Amino acid sequence: MKRKATHLMALLAIGSMLLSACGGNTPNNGTSANGGTNETQNSASTGAPSETPAGDMKLRILSANVGGKTPEENAKFEQEIKRLTGIDVTIERPASDYDQKVLTALGSGEKYDLIEGSDLGKLNSFVEQGALTNLTDFVQGSSQLSDPSVVPSAEWDQLKGQDGNIYAVFSKFQGGTMPIVRKDWLDKLNLQEPKTLDDYYNVLKAFKEQDPDGNGKADTYGLSTSGLYDIQGFMSAAGLKYRYVLKDGKRTIPYASDAAIPMYEWFAKLTKEGIMDPNFVTNDTGKMRNLFLTDRVGMVTYWDAWVGMFNSTRKEADPNTTFEAKALASATGPDGSLLMRRGDPDYWMMPVNAEHPDAAKKFLEFWHTEAGITLGSLGIEGDDYTKDGDQYTLTATGKEHNMDHGVPFWYNETVKPPFGKLPGVQEAQDLVKQYATLELSLPEWADAEKIVQNYALKAMSGEMTAADAVSKMQKELKAANLIDE
Exposure pattern of 89-118 as b/e (b: 16+ CB <10 Å)? Predict the structure, then answer.
């Protein structure tokens, strides 16, 4: 038992290092599988995105996620792009303060051909500043990017400015967040999957009181979160959506409305009764995940991809484990509807001062082909994986890199994951596709969020009453001109 626990903690440490907390990362610990890629006539599923000759094309990229895991591997990644496309590319991956680097680069006029982003609020701000190239004609004229089997047509609305033009191209498919439950604990306690807020309370209370891990000790909690990271699955019961919602053109924040008071009182009840992990206010996502993986808590709120990561990690530590993580839909409201959160998309921006726009466009098409997706997911052939016919095998390095070099998931439906998806991921993503919607990103949200989180956490932890917390939220938001009267 001690050896298994040590193995599990080692895997947790590796997972924390390799996987970013923003989700969308799906590792796979398999070593070989039949590559499920389909041979088609569509050029979108091949490695040749266009007929544009590469010539002496050059490309300078600023990226947070795409590329090698180390400087040495990043150099190999650049060489692999050149081998596949003919483009002489340089990928710069700042070790820290990536968002500040992007702001500095665009503000100072430093010349990059492509910049990776993941915040629609910032994208809209850059569009308003005139810092980005209008890519509408390029996208609509590209046989790859205009193909709805490569990128569904409706998805492009996410990357449009207020003028209706497209100002970025997706770098990967981004998922969503939801409550994730210990399905094996539900089964052990003969509980049904919760649907309503009352159902959720009863399940969480049982996880606290009925010894679901079977160790004879009162050492489990029902729920843990990472601060206010994602409680959308529960706020859904009151029809409250995170961030801004425009009503008649006015900025409102549902989490700061009077309708949120009963929800904060519900969380305070969980805290008072010991059902809620008492450290939820100060937890980082790593601590929250570890509680879930080490049998301390029965439910967390996190990204779809982590359903598979949880299952895979425990299976690696103990092949005979009964552990099973499962995604749940949000709590339904009185009318039966529910709200789920979808993450802002990851995308490529082309600054207006890009020196190599043709090379950038060629790369953007390549990135959505089978060759580009394979590079962005599996990595470099010979280093991360080997291939024999349709059979792929991960190397030791490839296993460490978890098949994520910036593209753990993608849009192109003609390119199938060679190892499939980890247990539970597909069901989680199906929930996202069915129910989840984007949140409204306004530039001022960064300031508003600090106020909302401060008082929401105080209310949820019982430090102050929910009514007082919401009242103070509203007062400070109005005083800072962050909501409209």
Answer: bebebeeeebeebbeebbeeeeebbbbbbb
* CA–CA dist 197, 336 (Å, integer): 12
Determine contact, residues 93/64, Cβ cutoff 8 Å.
yes
Tell me the residue ranges of DSSP E strands in 17-118.
32-34, 58-62, 88-92, 114-117
Q: Distance of alpha carbon 305 from its chain centroid, rounded?
A: 8
Query: Token pair of 69, please?
Result: 């895991």
- Residue range 475-484, pLDDT digits in tens: 999 999 999 9
Bridge partners (DSSP) of residue 340 are 436
Q: Is 268 helix (H, G, I), strand (E, B) or coil?
A: helix
List alpha helices for 26-70, DSSP H: none
Query: Which H or E run contains 87?
Result: none
Q: What percent of the chain has pLDDT over 90?
A: 76
Nearest to 394 by CA among 30, 19, 26, 25: 30
Residue 118 in tokens: 């993941």
46-60, 100-114, 159-173, 360-374 — which is least confidently predicted? 46-60
Average pLDDT over the chain, rounded to an integer: 88
What are 36's two structure tokens? 């499920």
Contact between residue 33 and residue 390 where contact means Cβ atoms under 8 Å apart: no
Strand order in the sheet with 88-92: 88-92, 58-62, 114-117, 347-349, 169-170
Spatial separation of the C-alpha atoms in residues 360 and 419, rounded to whole Å: 30
Listed in sequence order, the residues at least 6 apart from 106 whose beta carbon sits closer than 8 Å to its beta carbon are 115, 126, 129, 131, 351
Q: Distance (Å, rounded) from C-alpha 363 to C-alpha 360? A: 5
**Burial code of 233-245, b = ≥16 C-beta within 10 A, e = fewer?**
bbbbbbebbbbbb
Q: What is the pTM of this model?
A: 0.79
d(CA 60, CA 162): 28
Structure tokens at 399: 């296993």
Gap between the Cα atoms of 477 and 484, Å rounded: 9
The Cα–Cα gap between 65 and 88 comes to 19
Cα–Cα distance, 101 to 116 (Å, whole number): 11
> How far is the C-alpha of 208 from the C-alpha of 202, rounded, in Å?
10
- Element of type H or E holding 435: helix 425-435
Within 10 angstroms of residue 461's Cβ, the number of other Cβ atoms is 17
299: enclosing H helix or E strand: strand 297-303
* C-beta separation of 118 from 346 below 8 A: yes
Task: Give CA–CA dist 138/296, Å, rounded.
Answer: 51
What residues are paired with 341 via a beta bridge? 177, 437
Backbone angles phi, psi at 194, to 5 degrees: -70, 145
